[in-house]
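Hypothesis: this fold can be encoded by more than one sequence.
Test: take the structure tokens below, design a sequence, compare later.
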């Protein structure tokens, strides 16, 4: 059995305290067999690979749209959600199949090289299925649906269940999921969530913008005006938050509280009322944040200190290259540090690793550097070793 021993200035197991001048010992297949302080271990006939920086487990990108990788650099920034949706509708299909596949494969490979070992990915078609089948990265695919007209819901569900059959044929983990409150009739929202919960997991775009909140609470704002202008069936004006609406709507078909994993994504406009309602309604809820995407579209960020004060399970995603200039977990972590200097590095790292692994159901194999796991070993370079602040040149490299 060939072994590799990798050492760096710090090792962050995530499952325990950081280790100064630590090492990770792995088999040739990436299984961790030992971890500890280098000065306390002597290695015979094994060369120790020494690096400047910190070693961490492979990242988990808890929210990505890899299918949209061909849209890199095409979108205007700061348009708000209504403007972003209009761009998606006009640009999504302007590129041919081969170019879409090439961009997607390049982005997928780049994520893996940067050290992403697990991903919760949103799919609207089957184009990503084959690469997921053969990739060493663990993926859970959420087959997202849209549809504002109630009469269309049964056919949309029939179509997404056919897409799930294709995913099953590739042997990948995939199931339907609702997109968000503002792109779906209440009926489709419920039906798709029910189908997704059968797999044990749903991912839901939640309170991504104040426009979404205004639409549900008051029936006002750019999103509401856009829907009225297109003559689509209007959502109910509830006077409450968008998340409360989702929960109340879902409770018509599902007994609460829900024990399956619910990943709420973005959460830019979430508030204490919404958090309290979610905690009462979901036993296993994860709050995924995508900082660079939120800045790209709205120039806003989620209220991370509010989420932390409530001791919520936070995880990190990159969203897509339509709403981000790069897919980089380190860049997302650095953005959090730049805007929330009170949050320590090791806490943000847990969001980027074990919390995401739990959210997508992969924490038995990835998410921490522990004996018996195969999480991947990743080097983060260009980090201040005294403050553990990522500098502007910080990057991650997969070593195992």
């Amino acid at each position: 059995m060939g072994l590799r021993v990798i050492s760096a200035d710090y090792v962050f197991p995530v499952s325990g305290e950081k280790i100064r001048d630590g090492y990770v010992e792995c088999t040739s297949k990436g299984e961790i067999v030992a971890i500890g302080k280098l000065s306390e271990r002597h290695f015979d006939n094994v060369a120790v690979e020494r690096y400047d920086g910190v070693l961490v487990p492979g990242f988990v990108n808890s929210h990505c749209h890899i299918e949209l990788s061909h849209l890199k650099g095409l979108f205007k920034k700061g348009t708000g959600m209504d403007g972003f949706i209009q761009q998606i509708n006009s640009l999504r299909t302007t590129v041919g199949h081969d170019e879409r596949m090439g961009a997607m494969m390049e982005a997928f490979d780049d994520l893996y090289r940067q050290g992403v070992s697990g991903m919760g990915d949103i799919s609207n078609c089957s184009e990503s299925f084959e690469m997921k089948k053969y990739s060493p990265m663990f993926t859970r695919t959420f087959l997202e649906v849209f549809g504002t007209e109630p009469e269309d819901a049964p056919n949309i569900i029939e179509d997404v269940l056919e897409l799930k059959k294709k995913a099953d044929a590739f042997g990948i983990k995939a199931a339907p999921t609702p997109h968000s409150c503002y792109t779906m009739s209440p009926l489709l929202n419920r039906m798709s969530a029910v189908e997704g919960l059968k797999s044990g997991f749903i991912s839901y775009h939640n309170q991504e913008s104040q426009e979404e909140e205004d639409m549900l609470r008051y029936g006002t704002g750019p999103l509401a005006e856009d829907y009225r202008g297109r003559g689509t069936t209007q959502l109910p004006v509830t006077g409450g938050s968008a998340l409360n609406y989702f929960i109340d709507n879902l409770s018509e078909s599902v007994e609460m509280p829900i024990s399956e994993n619910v990943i709420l994504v973005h959460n830019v406009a979430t508030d204490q009322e919404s958090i309290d309602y979610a905690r009462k309604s979901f036993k296993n809820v994860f709050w995924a944040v995508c900082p660079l995407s939120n800045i790209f579209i709205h120039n806003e960020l989620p209220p991370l200190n509010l989420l932390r004060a409530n001791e919520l399970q936070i995880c990190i995603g990159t969203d897509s290259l339509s709403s981000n200039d790069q897919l980089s977990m380190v860049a997302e972590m650095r953005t959090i540090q730049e805007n929330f200097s009170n949050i320590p590095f090791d806490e943000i790292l847990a969001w980027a690793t074990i919390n995401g692994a739990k959210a997508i159901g992969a924490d038995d194999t990835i998410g921490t550097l522990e004996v018996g796991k195969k999480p991947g070993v990743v080097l983060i370079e260009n980090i201040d070793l005294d403050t553990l602040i990522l500098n502007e040149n910080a990057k991650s490299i997969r070593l195992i």
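The two ends are 16 Å apart (CA to CA). The chain has 14 helices and 14 strands.
Hypothesis status: open.
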